[in-house]
Each structure stands twice: as C-alpha cells, then as structure tokens.
Specification:
This protein is α+β, with helices and mostly antiparallel strands. It has two helices and five strands; from the N terminus they run E-E-E-H-H-E-E. It has a five-stranded mixed sheet. The radius of gyration is 13 Å and the shape is globular. InterPro entries: Restrct_endonuc-II-like, tRNA_endonuc-like_dom_sf, UPF0102_YraN-like.
C-alpha cells in the first residue's frame, strides 16, 4: 500500500508543514526546499527551522490523534533549478 496524503501546507502555531503523508505504519512530515542546486537546497534547512518544524509536527499529532502511527519521521525533499529531486529520509533525526 502506498502513502496517503493527510495534509498539504498545514499551518500550526509553530509554523507550516509542507506535507504530511501516512501508511499503516508511518506518519511522515515532509519539508520541501528548492534552490539552484540539490546541495544548496539541502543546506537551506537551518537548525532553528528544523526545531520549529519538529514542534509543529508534535503539535499536529497532539491535535489530530487519529493520524498517530507506530512510527514517525520527518523527511526532506530537495529540488534543484532543473527540477531534479532527492528525498532525504529521517532528515531531522539529528535535531
């Protein structure tokens, strides 16, 4: 079974989450960054923004308990100016 989109551009008191998707085992928040290169896109996510996004995700899961799953993670999708994309799974684990 594939991932189901639960929300797009979800605003919270802590900031906006670009995308929330889920399957039976995982609920995943996704941040999308686009810059000239994939490297610049990946580097565009600051520690401060990462902490805000994690707080936003915690908030969403507290007010939408039906979205809860056994596993959670925060992925980063980076896009360059040519439209190439890369997904970095569990990108915020370090924060």
């Amino acid at each position: 079974m594939g991932l189901k989109v639960l929300a797009r551009r979800l605003r919270t008191p802590f900031g906006e989450i670009d995308l929330i998707v889920a399957d039976a085992e995982w609920v995943i928040a996704v941040e999308v960054k686009q810059r000239k290169t994939l490297k610049e896109s990946a580097e565009a996510l600051s520690q401060k923004q990462s902490q805000r996004l994690l707080a936003a995700f915690d908030y969403v899961l507290s007010v939408r308990p039906e979205w809860g799953r056994p596993n959670t993670r925060f992925d980063l999708v980076v896009v360059d100016q040519k439209g190439r994309t890369r997904r970095i799974q569990d990108a915020l684990r370090a924060f």
